[in-house]
Amino acid sequence: SSNEHKLNFKKSKEACLSFIQDALLQKEWKRAAEFLTCYIESLEKDYSREHIGPSEMIWRTGAEILWHHSQSSMKEFSCFMEQMKTLGVKRYLKVCLEHVFHLLCNGQIDEAYQNLSLAESWRFGEQTAIQDKEMKLIQAYRGLLDYYSWFKQKSILLEHSEDGFSDSAVEQEMHGYFRKAAVNLKEIIKIPGVWDIFVKCYVDLLEFYGDHNEARQVLNEYAYNSKFPANPNAHVYLYQFLKRQREPKKSLISALKILHDIVPSHELMIDFNTMLQKSKKRKKRRLGLEVIFAALDYAGWKENAKAWSCLARQVKQIVISEKHLDWIKQEWNSRKDWWPAFHFSRYLAKRNWQENKSLSYEKALVAGILLGKGCKYFKYVSHQGCKAQLKRFRMLKKFVNRHNPVYLRISG
């Protein structure tokens, strides 16, 4: 019966999709291609009387298979994408974008630019208005490639100027690329979203031509506009710009404070801690201790010698002055149950000593203060250092032994 036939077809279609998915997960591209071919042929056979547009699954899966298949070529991939463009009006611009990404990955810059230009001139009734955002994205990527051409011309011009030559033709061409890139990049970053690469390129253009006020406005908007999603990179770019402009430390600290709140494990926390430690304000020095403790909570920082050096230096200053021991105590209270196993085990002491003696020295100092002279990490490292007749380790052992009462106050 007709109903039975439709039911059997539905089951076979679902099974075929399951096989395709399994082949993709196993990276068996040839098998995936065979199943996809069967799937498409069965659609044509069973629904020949009905108009069926290519589903997103077909063009995305097909693109993935062709990109990885050992016997496929860029020419075949492009041919497939062109077919998908002509068959799917609603997805035309999305398919164009994916085609461009693959061309760029294959190093075909000119072909990618040509495809973007063709897509930008595409019009199809009401679909043009509906796909307004995709069109802006098409224009933005064209702006990105214009920036790439501008950058190449700038490099040529700088090389010529170093040799004592001037090339007005290159300079004029470079300015032309600047104008085209700036227009499209400026438009896309007005839309709330994550536009890191576009923002970086646009700011680079503005800085090169000395428009620092516009660059600052763009970065502030990108970092602080509540309509944009929270984005750590926005604050990184703002900080880097302020640093290039030699802005006061107050502005730099403000930018990094927000970054710390979003990503306390960011690599710039070293810079943040250093600036805070140099401050004359007690509140900022206290924040500096909090920042470095928070960074070392993350596994990626476990063997970061700079971070341990920052913590060791501040802890040592506090211990010598015997002021603000409560700062250390507050930070340690929430960590004393898990930091010893996480950072200060005997196993880590052996490994750190073998791989990086400077790291083991800084960690041993912190371990000795926080856990006392009986700490496994401190005992192993100080013993190895004294055994190797290294003066700094003998001094380390004396320092911790002399200030052992501080451990009792912190742990109390």
UniProtKB/TrEMBL annotation:
Query: Which residues lie in coiled coils?
Result: none
Q: What is this protein called?
A: TAF1A polymerase
Q: Which domain of life is it from?
A: Eukaryota
Q: What is the organism of origin for this protein?
A: Sylvia borin
Identify the InterPro entries for this entry. Answer: SL1/TIF-IB_Component (IPR052669), TAF1A (IPR039495)
Write out the GO biological process terms: transcription by RNA polymerase I
Offer a single GO CC term for the protein: RNA polymerase I transcription regulator complex
